[in-house]
């Protein structure tokens, strides 16, 4: 392997020894992308790309639900054996989520590395503070959303392959019609997208991913989706709906 070991530590965790090796990995020479694969990150589907491929979060969300119920039962018991089982199972959910994110990141990078495309992601900084959740279940799912970890995995895997990754402003990416460029909050109804002007319909996450990819292609001359999609002389918010 073309790797150089910089450091190695033997770690004991939950009565299991792990050898943690830090290595230097050579990075491929980055290329100039002419097109971008847009990727929309979410909860029900962890990722949906502009090619129409979805990476479901059903298995991960199901595991989180089971772990949440089990934790509640064990915590209510409060016995020594219950506490021991809680400790034993701690970290299992995080390890599973990490493995899922690794697999998704690997698939996305492998898809674009031989096509001359880059990967475009939404800049989701502060997304938890900007989104609204209802009920205990949604708060738990929302709080455990590991989109930042997935983004980091995509970035470093892409760097090794020389694939460019760009972050774009998510403003109006889910509200803009990819067919006629009309922007309206009413265009999106949960999982479906239906343009109120031209009637274009599609899967909402894929429409968002397509718009993300288009913004990346047109950067840096246009910094906001409003400017890119709004016809000259028209308001970027024809319906009066803002970001």
In short:
With 243 residues, the chain is α+β, with helices and mostly antiparallel strands. It has helices spanning 58-77, 80-89, 92-112, 127-130, 135-143, 147-161, 204-218, 225-229; strands spanning 4-13, 16-24, 35-41, 45-49, 54-56, 117-122, 165-168, 188-189, 192-194, 201-203.
Task: Record keyword descriptors for this entry.
flat, alpha+beta, three-stranded antiparallel β-sheet, 41% helix, 243 residues, 8 helices, five-stranded mixed β-sheet
Topology:
Layout: E1 4-13, E2 16-24, E3 35-41, E4 45-49, E5 54-56, H1 58-77, H2 80-89, H3 92-112, E6 117-122, H4 127-130, H5 135-143, H6 147-161, E7 165-168, E8 188-189, E9 192-194, E10 201-203, H7 204-218, H8 225-229
Parallel strand pairs: 3-6, 6-7
Antiparallel strand pairs: 1-2, 3-4, 4-5, 8-9, 9-10
Q: What do these coordinates show?
A:
This protein has eight helices and ten strands. The chain has helices spanning 58-77, 80-89, 92-112, 127-130, 135-143, 147-161, 204-218, 225-229, and strands spanning 4-13, 16-24, 35-41, 45-49, 54-56, 117-122, 165-168, 188-189, 192-194, 201-203. Mean pLDDT is 78; it is low at 128-133, 140-144 and 221-243. The chain is of the alpha+beta class and 243 residues long. A five-stranded mixed β-sheet has the order 5-4-3-6-7. It has a three-stranded antiparallel β-sheet with strand order 8-9-10. The protein has a two-stranded antiparallel sheet with strand order 1-2. It has a domain at 4-168. The termini are far apart.
């Amino acid at each position: 392997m073309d790797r150089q070991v910089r450091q190695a530590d033997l770690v004991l965790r939950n009565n299991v020894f792990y050898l943690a090796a830090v290595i230097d990995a050579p990075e491929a020479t980055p290329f100039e992308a002419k097109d971008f694969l847009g990727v929309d990150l979410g909860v029900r589907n962890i990722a949906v790309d502009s090619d129409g491929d979805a990476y479901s979060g059903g298995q991960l969300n199901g595991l989180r639900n089971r772990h949440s119920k089990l934790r509640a039962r064990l915590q209510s018991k409060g016995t020594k054996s219950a506490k021991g089982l809680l400790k034993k199972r701690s970290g299992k959910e995080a390890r599973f989520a990490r493995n899922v994110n690794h697999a998704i990141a690997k698939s996305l990078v492998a898809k674009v590395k031989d096509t001359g495309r880059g990967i475009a992601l939404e800049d989701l900084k502060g997304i938890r503070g900007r989104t609204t959740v209802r009920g205990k279940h949604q708060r738990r799912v929302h709080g455990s959303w590991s989109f930042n970890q997935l983004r980091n995995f995509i970035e470093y895997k892409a760097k090794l392959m020389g694939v460019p990754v760009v972050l774009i402003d998510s403003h109006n990416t889910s509200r803009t019609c990819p067919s006629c460029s009309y922007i309206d909050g009413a265009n999106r109804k949960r999982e479906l997208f239906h343009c109120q002007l031209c009637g274009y319909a599609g899967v909402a996450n894929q429409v968002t991913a397509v718009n993300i990819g288009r913004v990346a292609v047109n950067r840096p001359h246009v910094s906001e989706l409003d400017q890119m999609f709004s016809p000259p002389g028209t308001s970027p918010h024809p319906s009066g709906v803002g970001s």
